[in-house]
Amino acid sequence: ASVSEPAQKCCTENIQPFLTSILEELMGPVSSGFTEVRSLFDKEVNEIIQDFQKTNDMTRLKENVDQLMTLPYNSVKMEPCYLKVNKLQELLQDLKSRFKVYHIDFMIQRTQNFMQELMENAVYTFEQLFSPSRQADSAKVATTIEKVKLRVLK
């Protein structure tokens, strides 16, 4: 009871007024990282579509889709996504001194883990939605891939 009132006063005066601006500032790099994940998925699926339209090879299509499934674990391709979030390092340094925010590296790593998880979910969903269509008419496969991609991105 004796701590509650001073703690509430401290939060109301020293933290609450800054929360909105802090969240907006932190969400910039986080949002751009997740946007980069979306763009990477879109780009990779577009490459699958273009390759299939050139070759019309169902075996190669299966190989490309199987390779897409490894995308979340491809550190080279995921690197640009992760780099967007690294900007949090600078932003969180200010918060560290002002609000005693610790474990900055952990926060960045968790955000990157969520990005990888999002990509895992995207490629898994793509594969699940596209699998029944693999036996379809090869003339419709590229259109089907595009529809599945748009559904996943939605």
Automatic annotation (TrEMBL):
| Ranges that cross the membrane | none
Name by which UniProt lists this protein = NIBAN protein
Gene behind the chain: Fam129a
* Residue intervals of the Niban 1/2/3 domain: 9-154
Q: Name one Pfam family in it.
A: Niban2
Describe the family membership recorded for this protein in Swiss-Prot or TrEMBL. Answer: Belongs to the Niban family.
InterPro entries annotated for this entry? Niban-like, Niban_1/2/3_dom
Tell me the PANTHER family matching this sequence: NIBAN FAMILY MEMBER (PTHR14392), PROTEIN NIBAN 1 (PTHR14392:SF3)
